[in-house]
Amino acid sequence: MWHGGGGHVLRFRAMAARLDVDQPFYGLRSPEADGAVARLTVEDLAAKYIRDIPGSATKGPYLLAGASFGGLIAYEMATQLITAGEKLAC
Questions:
Q1: Domain tally for the chain?
Q2: Which of 16, 32, 76, 87 is the most buried (most CB within 10 A)?
Q3: Is residue 88 part of a domain?
């Protein structure tokens, strides 16, 4: 599996620059972008990324986004967060 843009987050730089200063923005890189070869399911990747969010011990609401394959992962992250009782921003 590979995220669009080679698994890197720089493609989201312009979007991040347009957010309010009080809006946290975290770009989560694909494990493959770091040279790691892993056979992870979409569910596994979503769970990993939820754990990787800095300060993820805090409560939402979470606002998630992803492009291409990353959109599928963001959808699965949303599903897992809702199942865990977290709130999502719409």
A1: 1
A2: 76
A3: no
